[in-house]
Hints:
Layout: E1 5-11, H1 14-23, E2 32-33, E3 40-45, E4 48-55, H2 56-62, E5 76-80, H3 84-94, E6 96-103, E7 107-113, E8 119-125
Amino acid sequence: xxxxxxxxxxxxxxxxxxxxxxxxxxxxxxxxxTDGTDGVHIIMNGDAPLFILSSEAEFQRDTPALAAQxxxxxxxxxVGVADYDATAARIRDxxxxxxxxxxEGVFRMLTSRDLNGYAVAISEIRV
Length: 127
């Protein structure tokens, strides 16, 4: 699997944000990724994910360590990895894990805090 990097963004209105990025020439989500709540939506840059969008409320619920941050500062840096399981195991041993999310067969993400306080996520996307 090819490693892919992208940003996860909290947004005021998911539908309006998807339409905005589509107007810029990016494509909307090929499918919603959901855990049974609001879900997240993938904005594509050709065949590669560019952003994962979630509503502000969903982001605050799923990433409480960043809930108090202003909307524009709610970014999680996401890095696609070739071997998700091995990388996740190393992170669990070495860093504070903020969130783990799985949508079976489609998407997995583990978010941790780095030594400077940044939220950094590793991911595996199958779209």
